[in-house]
Amino acid sequence: xxxxDTGEKRIPLPVCDHQPTKYDGPSxxxxxxLRREYVNPGVLMYYKDPIAIVEGHMQYLWDxxxxxxxxxxxxxxxxxxxxxxxxxxxxIREQVGKLVHTTTIYLHPNIVxxxxxxxxxxxxxxxxxxxxxxxxxxxxxxxxxxxARMHTGRHDVLTLRNCYHGGSQQTMSMTAVGTWKYPVMSAxxxxxxxxxxxxxxPFGLEYPSCDLKCATSVEDVxxxxxxxxxxxxxxxxxxxxxxxxxxxxxxxxxVYDIVRKYGGLCIADEVQTGFGRTGEQYWGFExxxxxxxxxxxxxxxxxxxxxxxxxxxxxIAEHMAKRLHFNTFGGNPVSVLSGMSVLEIVxxxxxxxxxxxxxxxxxxxxxxxxxxxxxxxxxxxxGLMLGVELVxxxxxxxxxxxxxxxxxxxxxxxxxLLGKGGYYGNVIRIKPPMCLTKxxxxxxxxxxxxxxxxxxxxx
Length: 459
Ligand SMILES: Cc1ncc(COP(=O)(O)O)c(C=O)c1O
What we know:
alpha/beta; Aspartate Aminotransferase, domain 2; 2 domains; globular
């Protein structure tokens, strides 16, 4: 057991009954040396002093030395129901022993059962029932845009400033956070519109006297920057990479109406917000009372397995059958079995309720820290998708960039792994496996209390 031991009585990292196996592979330093030599330096890695994670169980991870961590970031929101969840591990072991891959050119029960289960979890009467299975969020968003263009016969796509949709040329062009873009030619036909980011309102206004200018301004972009005929709009119901940016509740309703008035289809990128994570609702878009024409997903749907999906209505999906299209690993029996298991476990273990209740408890605890720490500008998010934006000054809102990095480093030393995001990198992102408990949350809040306090004191 480790604890946030600073002399005061602090809440210890909850005890876990899982005994990690003894690791006898290369040490962290050896791994780092090999990586420097053979791995492309662009492969993203966290921490000034990187850690080697070699084992996981539910919400906990262990490094090569046997040190335990609480995972507050879930491999970037990719582990939904817990690391190595026993039900998934058992099923995958069995499947790997039987059949790993043949591609989709032959029938297999896992892919059809998974697609059926997804359709059953879409809003009633939405007709969102036809799924193309992929390997990633990038793949899924590419496909949604492609189908929207085929269906509408148009090209222009609207995306939100501060969004992230993937790393291919098309999805990097759709992405609108400069730090995630390279200075190479963007794909044509993409326009970025204002997000609903009240804390840093793009128009310098205040909700609700702003009259939702962020949303209504989308019409001006369509009128002035396109021919007035658009293919699609894509939006994350809560922006993840952009720093857990949650829009005013009316935002998506207004934008969807405008997009549809100009003939566009609406894509909800649920890569981070799906499968109960936002607590009140199964899908992120349901928090805003809208029904999209496409739902794209990845990350948590596979609980760590490479799995993505794009679900739409049959009349839109049928455009894919006009030409040949193929995704070699999309829909392989192992990944979709993991996805199928996630859908079942979210229901069986009441994960959505857990995200709502435990997430609410954590948000309250983090919000309470604002009384003590001026460095915290805002605590926001829903369920177990939370963000803490750090600022040097609450009036000027100057981003506390170095401070955020220090808090994340210090938390790691104390056994808590967190994410970082936002354009400036000043938002702490908390998106743990959804099996997190209230004790874990108390540890997390306590740990952040200490770390933020130390950073504010210049330590
Ligand atoms: C909202 C969102 N969409 C799409 C993607 C791209 O997913 P992938 O990395 O699986 O291609 C990400 C990845 O972070 C994401 O957060």
